[in-house]
């Protein structure tokens, strides 16, 4: 049992010298053993190929292992299927190279150019009806922003039927409502360990007066505080059809991204919502259509 630490210490410098940090990361993550690392190094030297390629040829790792290590090397974290406690619908976490996530990244790029690059930092993600998938879209969008290296905060401002605490498996009982009521400070914001640059502020205690709470002037101060701490602040809010909560949050954030559902969201409702948002002082930055 005492030989393994010694072998690891003697092998690690060879791995680092031979293939930058790929070999070291594969060792650290347990994808290969120190003994197998020596086999890989020998093949690498004989054939003049990369460490990862040699490990693949020997059948010690898979393409998925290489992708995951490269993601860590380039600060682009994601999870293997089955890892973590998040729902599989959080595709940005589990399927970063899928068509769905490519689309998410395209949305992110548009938002960076049209909204965040112009000095804005806050954005409301809004669905028209409950069940339109806006909360899950907001969660995935927050993940891809964090993967870009933007310090991202996802705020669950749905004080009626919150979802983000469940999606990100948060243990905290306090959240936005408690901060607005003066019962908690910003140290209750949870950092999502699986993603270096992502934090979540849960909804907190469900209040009897969510609309009035979100309309308080203290929300203006809170939003400014959050914008000073994060590059991107995304607000998940109740669906537009459920009341005026979304209007109150949008007036503070300044911008809205509409999530419409294919073959379900009426265009007339979208037009009415856009007009009402404009009257409240918020800009509808864009819209996305989801299909499920």
From TrEMBL:
Pfam families: CBP_BcsQ (PF06564). GO terms for molecular function: ATP binding; protein tyrosine kinase activity. The keyword Coiled coil does not apply. Keywords: ATP-binding, Kinase, Nucleotide-binding, Transferase. It comes from the Bacteria. One of its GO terms (cellular component) is plasma membrane. PANTHER family: FERRIC ENTEROBACTIN TRANSPORT PROTEIN FEPE (PTHR32309:SF13), TYROSINE-PROTEIN KINASE (PTHR32309). This is Chain length determinant protein tyrosine kinase EpsG.
């Amino acid at each position: 049992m005492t030989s393994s630490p010694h072998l690891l210490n003697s092998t690690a410098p060879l791995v680092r010298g031979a293939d930058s940090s790929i070999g070291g990361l594969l060792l650290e993550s347990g994808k290969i053993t120190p003994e197998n690392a020596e086999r890989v190094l020998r093949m690498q030297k004989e054939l003049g190929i990369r460490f990862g390629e040699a490990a693949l040829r020997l059948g010690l790792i898979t393409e998925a292992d290489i992708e995951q290590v490269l993601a860590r090397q380039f600060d682009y974290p994601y999870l293997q299927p089955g890892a973590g406690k998040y729902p599989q619908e959080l595709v940005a976490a589990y399927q970063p190279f899928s068509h769905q996530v490519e689309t998410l990244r395209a949305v992110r790029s548009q938002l960076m150019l049209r909204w965040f690059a112009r000095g804005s930092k806050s954005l409301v993600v809004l669905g028209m009806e409950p069940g339109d998938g806006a909360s899950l879209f907001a969660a995935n969008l927050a993940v891809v922003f964090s993967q870009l290296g933007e310090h991202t905060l996802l705020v669950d401002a749905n004080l009626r039927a919150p979802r983000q605490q469940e999606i990100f498996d948060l243990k905290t009982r306090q959240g936005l409502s408690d901060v607005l009521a003066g019962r908690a400070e910003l140290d209750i914001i949870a950092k999502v360990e699986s993603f270096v640059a992502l934090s979540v502020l849960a909804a907190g205690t469900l209040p009897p007066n969510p609309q009035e709470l979100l309309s308080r002037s203290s929300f203006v101060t809170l939003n400014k505080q959050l914008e000073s701490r994060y590059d991107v602040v995304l607000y998940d809010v109740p669906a537009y059809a459920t009341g005026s909560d979304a209007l109150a949050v949008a007036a503070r954030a300044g911008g809205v991204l509409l999530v419409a559902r294919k073959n379900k969201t009426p265009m007339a409702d979208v037009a009415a919502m856009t007009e009402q948002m404009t009257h409240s002082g918020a800009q509808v930055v864009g819209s996305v259509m989801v299909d499920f």
